[in-house]
Amino acid sequence: MAQTLASLMPDGDFLALTLANPDGLAPAQFTLADGTEVSIWDTGVICFEPTQPGNKDIVLSCGVHGNETAPIEICAELVQQLLVGTLALKHRLLVLFGNPAAINAGTREISENLNRLFSGHHSMGAGLINAERKRAKALEDYVSRFYDASRVTFSVPRNRYLYDLHTAIRGSRFEKFAVYPFLHDKPWQKAEFEFLQACDVTTVLLMQTPASTFSYYASNSHGADAFTIELGKVQPFGKNDMSRFARAREAIHQLVSRDSVQTTPFDEQQFQLYQVYRAINKQTQEFKLHFADDVQNFTAYPVGTLLATDGDTEYRVEREGEAIIFPNAKVAIGQRAMLMVVPTTVSHNLA
Ligand SMILES: O=C(O)CCC(=O)N[C@@H](CCC(=O)O)C(=O)O
Ligand SMILES: [Zn+2]
């Protein structure tokens, strides 16, 4: 029997369909009134192809961590508007709800941090032993399939994007910020800073090393302009003040529905730019932070301040201006428990 939008999701609520089927969803395909082809590839994986697509191949992801709800709400609403026809699509678009089981559980992860399993890390060590490892591999395959399909269909090079939307565990001095994956010395993109500013994101952390994150995977393996974007602090569904993300929501709508997003020219003075000074990895179960849970990301302490201990090892502030980000004592042993960042500039390597 041919599938229709009405038979699958009468109200266009793909998030509800995903969460009702967290472990998998049979592929389905249907056409919208304006000719846009919609394909459901799996639970939380939906691809839109307009009849005359513009030159962008856009991946939007959310819910890679299940309790980071504001981005899930933004993506669910976007997909719904596209499905019911209140927003017209300009470019090819793949929307991913990363970890449906963790979204249902309201937790960051079920067995393992999904955002540490990309670029093949899902198959290292013990291999594909849990749902998150299998999902990381599947998400890589879906992203490859999405980008590769347009290489076959279109003869001219296209622009690839992946915006992986998250929220931070704790509050931040700069409520919204982005992580720019390591580019292996390729230049940072002015147009991407402009897009981030349109999203009301003017704090950017420039990574200096490869990572096992989704955004680094898209950047490094597919040449996409890719970012992790942190929109505020973790809240349960329904408790987000979505007005604080109105500009991000609007910029994302413009990104998918227009030739170009309305931006202002890049001016470095408008940004707070940081680079990683050092990563502190958890070595033992004794790892302990020496500041309170309500201390915000990007807080700087005087040189010499004790930040964390890990067994006999002490971590103290080494450099003037060094600030904390993503501190989390609960990570698995061997994983990043905190980054220390320092202010930086980009003008010397900007395209
Ligand atoms: O607030 C926190 O400690 C974590 C928020 C979060 O999930 N951040 C991402 C950043 C990914 C990146 O470095 O690009 C993560 O930790 O996976
Ligand atoms: Zn996250």
From TrEMBL:
<dbReference type="Pfam" id="PF24827">
    <property type="entry name" value="AstE_AspA_cat"/>
</dbReference>
<feature type="domain" description="AstE/AspA barrel-sandwich hybrid">
    <location>
        <begin position="270"/>
        <end position="343"/>
    </location>
</feature>
<dbReference type="GO" id="GO:0019545">
    <property type="term" value="P:L-arginine catabolic process to succinate"/>
</dbReference>
<feature type="active site">
    <location>
        <position position="230"/>
    </location>
</feature>
<dbReference type="GO" id="GO:0019544">
    <property type="term" value="P:L-arginine catabolic process to L-glutamate"/>
</dbReference>
<dbReference type="GO" id="GO:0009017">
    <property type="term" value="F:succinylglutamate desuccinylase activity"/>
</dbReference>
<comment type="function">
    <text>Transforms N(2)-succinylglutamate into succinate and glutamate.</text>
</comment>
<dbReference type="InterPro" id="IPR007036">
    <property type="entry name" value="Aste_AspA_hybrid_dom"/>
</dbReference>
<dbReference type="InterPro" id="IPR055438">
    <property type="entry name" value="AstE_AspA_cat"/>
</dbReference>
<keyword id="KW-0056">Arginine metabolism</keyword>
<dbReference type="InterPro" id="IPR050178">
    <property type="entry name" value="AspA/AstE_fam"/>
</dbReference>
<protein>
    <recommendedName>
        <fullName>Succinylglutamate desuccinylase</fullName>
        <ecNumber>3.5.1.96</ecNumber>
    </recommendedName>
</protein>
<keyword id="KW-0479">Metal-binding</keyword>
<keyword id="KW-0378">Hydrolase</keyword>
<dbReference type="InterPro" id="IPR016681">
    <property type="entry name" value="SuccinylGlu_desuccinylase"/>
</dbReference>
<feature type="domain" description="Succinylglutamate desuccinylase/Aspartoacylase catalytic">
    <location>
        <begin position="56"/>
        <end position="254"/>
    </location>
</feature>
<dbReference type="Pfam" id="PF04952">
    <property type="entry name" value="AstE_AspA_hybrid"/>
</dbReference>
<comment type="pathway">
    <text>Amino-acid degradation; L-arginine degradation via AST pathway; L-glutamate and succinate from L-arginine: step 5/5.</text>
</comment>
<feature type="binding site">
    <location>
        <position position="68"/>
    </location>
    <ligand>
        <name>Zn(2+)</name>
    </ligand>
</feature>
<keyword id="KW-0862">Zinc</keyword>
<feature type="binding site">
    <location>
        <position position="166"/>
    </location>
    <ligand>
        <name>Zn(2+)</name>
    </ligand>
</feature>
<dbReference type="GO" id="GO:0008270">
    <property type="term" value="F:zinc ion binding"/>
</dbReference>
<comment type="similarity">
    <text>Belongs to the AspA/AstE family. Succinylglutamate desuccinylase subfamily.</text>
</comment>
<dbReference type="GO" id="GO:0016788">
    <property type="term" value="F:hydrolase activity, acting on ester bonds"/>
</dbReference>
<feature type="binding site">
    <location>
        <position position="65"/>
    </location>
    <ligand>
        <name>Zn(2+)</name>
    </ligand>
</feature>
